[in-house]
Amino acid sequence: MSSDDAYEQPGEPAQTGQPGQPGQPGQPGQVPPRVAMLGLGSMNGAILSGLLASSVRREDVVATTRSAATARARAEEHGITVLAEQETAEANGIAVEQADVVFLGVKPHGIVSLAESIASRLRPGAVVVSVAAAIDLAMLEGALAHGQPVIRSMPNTPLSVGLGVVGLVPGRHASAAHTRTVQTLLESCGAVHVIDESQIDALTGISGSGPAYAFYLAEQMADAGVQLGLDRALAADLAAQTIYGAGRMMVQHQRAGTADAAQLRRAVCSPNGTTERAIDAFDEHGFAAAVSAAVEASASRSAEITEELRTAE
Ligand SMILES: NC(=O)C1=CN([C@@H]2O[C@H](COP(=O)(O)OP(=O)(O)OC[C@H]3O[C@@H](n4cnc5c(N)ncnc54)[C@H](OP(=O)(O)O)[C@@H]3O)[C@@H](O)[C@H]2O)C=CC1
Ligand SMILES: O=C(O)[C@@H]1CCC=N1
Question: Which residue has the least CA distance to atom 19 on ligand 1?
Fold first, then answer.
């Protein structure tokens, strides 16, 4: 490692999220919020796993799905009540009646009709959090009763293991206390950034879609290892553990201010060594351009879906 590349050792591991606020759920002596998860697929399921492992009690959660088979499977998996719309026509309305925080976790094209269907059943102070890509605050607020607090979010699936990241955009009727409640809840399983709505498509391109980029990189690394003669299981574990270790190391150093990603990369590259050859190969094959195009494609697709849904209204 050259002196330019030297970095300090980090101190204590950084927190994944900001510290909770006094008087908020998850703090000692505070009543945890009652939560409704409408839709329990990849994303709401990941949030639920993270919340149940940290800040929310099973008896305080009611979830819904469309099909009865999924409801049964998810109820068994998480040990919570899951109502199926297929069996109980009013499932979503029933689920939200007692809730303080309601996560809307169906596909983007189903969000507005879902919000309309629960509008009259929500407690006036309940905060509605949409996790959907592309559904803007105007669409959400327009589907609910006037004054209902709404937050648009963009989470990611590593929330399921306490290592997620979430962008939050508070709507017009979400007070600082509503935002703090949701922020504190989600900080129990990830880092939370309160952002402007103009930034959410870019955030989607990096962290919302981003876990798939890391998984794709792991797939390609493992395939390359197999081509070099390794067993698939060994190659897959080498790739996964390397991405996990590099990710943790990078977060700790970045938050401690001791090294950024570029410094950490350079510290692995011995002059004229193996890694330098690998990075040169990445550059020759257009790695930077490919990553930039991928992030841009995700962000643009989000904006495009917003436009498609707006014109379909
Ligand atoms: N997947 C991801 O990594 C991320 C997803 N998102 C957003 O999360 C949202 C959900 O995506 P994802 O979790 O991937 O999708 P999934 O298809 O995995 O899950 C959708 C869920 O919604 C349920 N559902 C559908 N219609 C209804 C209804 N009317 N009432 C109750 N439940 C219903 C489905 O039930 P059933 O299975 O019975 O049909 C299923 O549980 C999307 O808007 C997406 O943009 C955001 C960030 C990341
Ligand atoms: O692919 C999607 O549309 C969703 C939003 C971000 C991650 N998954």
Answer: 41
pTM of the model: 0.92
Q: What are phi and psi of 113, to 5 degrees?
A: -65, -35
Tell me which ligand sits closest to the C-alpha of residue 157: 1
What is the number of the ligand 2 atom nearest to the C-alpha of 204? Answer: 6
Q: What is the ipTM of this complex?
A: 0.99
Mutate which of 42, 204, 206, 302 for ligand 2? The one with the most ligand atoms within 8 Å of its CB, which is 204
Q: Is the pLDDT score of 243 beyond 90?
A: yes
% pLDDT > 70, the chain: 90
Signed CA dihedral, 49, 53, 56, 62: sign only:
positive
Query: What's the CA-to-centroid distance between 40 and ligand 1, angstroms?
Result: 6
Give residue 210 CA to ligand 1 midpoint distance, Å: 18
Question: How high is the mean pLDDT of the chain?
Answer: 92
Task: Using alpha carbons only, give the angle 310, 39, 148 rounded to the nearest 5 degrees.
Answer: 60
The band of 25, judged by pLDDT with boundaries at 50, 70 and 90, is: very low
